[in-house]
Write a structure and sequence with these properties.
285 residues; 4 helices; 28% strand
Length: 285
């Protein structure tokens, strides 16, 4: 009990530091066990067609469902969970997922004219020839259940989700393996410029039912250091900006001082010339 209390106190102390817009990406989402617990948002109503994409995320199974869905995008169906369903082609993963209560890395890639592949912890566990020739990545996204007005309990996810990112390219098997081996607490996904859906965006979207954010305990220390680093960099930027502003003001003051000195020198020269003329005039008188 004392240990639990200490952990809760520690987390409460760190939370204000992590809760800014930058720190939001360090939160995971926990979904309740019912079909009313999900996240739903729009990726827009139009967009270019793509010939490939990759969806990756970390997940933990908590509640077993017959056909659980983690990610569902419509139109141009992309479904990922205990099975992969893309444009009417399915890869069954029900017997290949790790046991409940364990975080694992899950990816699905699709490429026109190539293959539709599923990966668990960086290793390919299934593939099939894709049906479509191209698709779009816009539309409505639902996390934790199907995209339908009536959410079905057989599709309830009811687990924990972290770092879900959608890339507008097919990541290679070595890139996916590198991502998985980097671990739950890494930020390796952020190096890819092709992220069209970012976790830091996802975690701020509208939630329904019992979906809450939390800080993964195993990442708390390293993410707290990252958040402190981000805040330090931000403050440093402010200080440098202020310093640059002060430097500009000092330089402007130096210029004005030099101009004043020059003007004073010119006036002194004119004054000396006038005095010399007066002295000559007095001598003549």
């Amino acid at each position: 009990m004392v240990l639990v209390a200490l952990i809760l106190v520690f987390m409460s102390l760190e939370l204000p530091l992590m809760a800014d817009s930058t720190g939001k990406k360090y939160f995971a989402l926990s979904f309740g066990p019912t079909n009313r617990d999900y996240v739903q948002f729009s990726m827009g109503d139009s967009g270019p067609r793509v010939n490939s994409f990759t969806l990756c995320y970390w997940m933990k199974i908590v509640h077993k469902a017959r056909s659980s869905i983690v990610f569902h995008k419509s139109p141009y169906e992309i479904v990922s969970g205990s099975y992969i369903w893309i444009d009417y082609k399915e890869i069954n993963l029900r017997e290949k997922l790790p046991q409940a209560g364990v975080w694992f890395h899950h990816c699905v890639s699709w490429v026109s004219g190539g293959a539709q592949r599923a990966y668990i912890n960086g290793e390919e566990v299934g593939n099939i020839s894709p049906a479509g020739t191209s698709m779009t990545l816009y539309g409505t996204v639902v996390l934790g259940n199907q995209h339908a007005s009536n959410k079905n309990s057989v599709h309830t996810f009811g687990g924990e989700l972290y770092k879900l990112n959608l890339f507008s390219e097919e990541l290679s098997s070595s890139e996916i393996r590198e991502m998985a081996r980097a671990g739950l607490c890494s930020t390796i996904e952020e190096k890819y410029e092709t992220r069209v859906l970012k976790w830091e965006q996802v975690v701020t979207e509208q939630r329904y039912g019992n979906v809450r954010e939390f800080l993964p305990p195993q990442c708390l220390e390293i993410n707290n250091v990252r958040a402190k680093l981000s805040q330090t960099e931000f403050k440093l930027g402010e200080l440098l900006e202020a310093h640059n502003g002060t430097q500009s003001e000092l330089e402007e003051a130096r210029v004005q001082l030099n101009e004043t000195r020059n003007e004073l020198t010119e006036r002194n020269t004119r004054l000396q010339t006038t005095k010399t003329k007066l002295n000559r005039t007095e001598l003549k008188l």
